[in-house]
Write a structure and sequence with these properties.
Elements lengths: L4 E6 L8 E8 L5 E7 L10 E7 L6 E2 L7 H17 L1
Antiparallel strand pairs: 1-2, 1-5, 2-3, 3-4
Length: 88
């Protein structure tokens, strides 16, 4: 399976998991997809970058383009895609 990004959201600076990137991998419920939730700098020792799952929609914040993510977030997502692809 080729891993692709389904949607990218920005909830705003008031939360640790500001950005959520959903992949085309089904989650544990019909409407859920696997995702990466993260803050501005997920590689920082006090940063946030966690694998999760959830439903697409406006409750995640504003939908944005992948290119609008901070560079560190883009790097983490690309690493996720490479890792998942290598496992299949």
């Amino acid at each position: 399976m080729k891993v692709k990004i389904k949607a990218v959201y920005d909830f705003g600076p008031s939360v640790a998991d500001r950005y959520t990137v959903y992949f085309n991998i089904k989650g544990s419920r019909f409407e859920f997809y696997e995702a990466r939730a993260m803050g501005d700098n997920p590689y920082h020792p006090q940063g946030f970058g966690q694998w999760t799952e959830g439903a697409l929609g406006e409750h995640n914040g504003k939908e944005i383009k992948f290119s609008e993510l901070p560079e560190a977030c883009q790097k983490l997502v690309n690493t996720d895609i490479e890792f998942i692809t290598a496992q299949n």
